[in-house]
Amino acid sequence: MAMKVRTTVIGSYPVVGDGFDAIRAAVQDQLDAGIDLISDGQTRKDMVAYFADHIPGFEVNDGRSYIVGKIMPPEEAPLPVDLAFARRLSDGRADVKAIITGPVTMAFFSELKPSAPYKSYRDQALYQDISNALVAECQLIQKEGFMNFQIDEPSFSIGAPMDLGRKALENIFNGIRGTKALHVCGSLRGVFQSMVQIDGMDVISIAFKDSLSNFDNVERKALEDHGKKLGIGCVSSTDGNVESKEAISSIIRKAAGAYGVENISSIHPDCGLRSLERETAKGKLRNMVMALKGMAKELE
User: Fold this and answer.
1) Is 6-285 assigned to CATH 3.30.70.120?
2) CA-to-CA distance for 287 and 32, rounded, in angstroms?
């Protein structure tokens, strides 16, 4: 039986050059490393501004995002252009996934202005409106033929309330087709049981390299009961040293033993790699791919 675990990235990559040149460098490095499911490198802007700058109700000034009015679905989106360029560059060597900043992170990392019709950051309508806007965004991407989506919610690991995010995330996941992943970096202590119950999501993408406690937080039975697969973070997104193939293999092996190979969808870095030097990022991806290939027999 062929190995089904794929290699992917979480998203951001060291920026080399501007515009399409930066995307070209990010894509080429991922292809050279042998990544199966690549990103466009998220090179244009930060993860919130990338969406806030064209969704009505948001404003971006000096790199800071503000909620200034009722948030509405956008009529057009820039991301499909970047994704289409990445797809052309990949030339069939890898699939390309769309990475969407989640509704809770969009809200928590933006300043809520008095002009906006929301009572506070606890207003459920705020998350529903952002969610509706992101559904429209994803559907514009889907029209261009992209079928792999990752929703990023780093705010869940730093205390953002899951009760506000769950309905908003389910609205997105159930509004699009294809393979749908949720990425949360950091520790999932107190969060995993709520995350695994989110409807419409296929994959939970989690950091294990720098958050070893997640081996205690993530439960195999819950994954299987709710029909979810795991994405395993196995290289650090902050450490400037390139992990050895052996060190990476040890994390993959531990995850396979704890959760079963059949419950692992992919391996990837813990988070985005943008803060690292380009050669370091390339080395991490290359060793990650080689580690997985070296475990092919074990993971069949």
Assistant:
1) no
2) 12
Cα–Cα distances (Å) from 129 to 133, 153, 167, 170, 176, in that order, read: 6, 17, 11, 13, 17
Task: Using alpha carbons, select from 25, 179, 185 the residue that is nearest to residue 96.
Answer: 179
**Residue-level pLDDT at 161:** 75
Neighbours of 18 (CB within 10 A): 10
Q: Which residues pair with 179 in a beta bridge?
A: 148
Under-50 pLDDT residues of the chain: 1-2
Q: Where are the alpha helices (DSSP H) in the chain?
A: 19-33, 49-52, 79-90, 103-108, 124-142, 162-173, 192-195, 214-217, 220-225, 245-259, 278-294
What is the pLDDT, as a whole number, of residue 117? 98
Say whether 177 sits in a helix, a strand or coil: coil
State the sign of the Cα–Cα–Cα–Cα dihedral 122, 128, 133, 134: positive
Among the residues of 196-244, which ranges form H helices? 214-217, 220-225
- pTM higher than 0.90, yes or no? yes
Alpha carbon distance 288, 156 (integer Å): 26
- What the block records as the tokens of 27 is 């894509």
Which among 128, 208, 210 is positioned nearest to 169, based on CA atoms? 128
Q: What is the pLDDT of residue 289?
A: 98
Which residue ranges make up each domain of the chain? 6-285
Looking at residue 2, its pLDDT comes to 44
pLDDT value, residue 3: 52
pLDDT of residue 234: 98
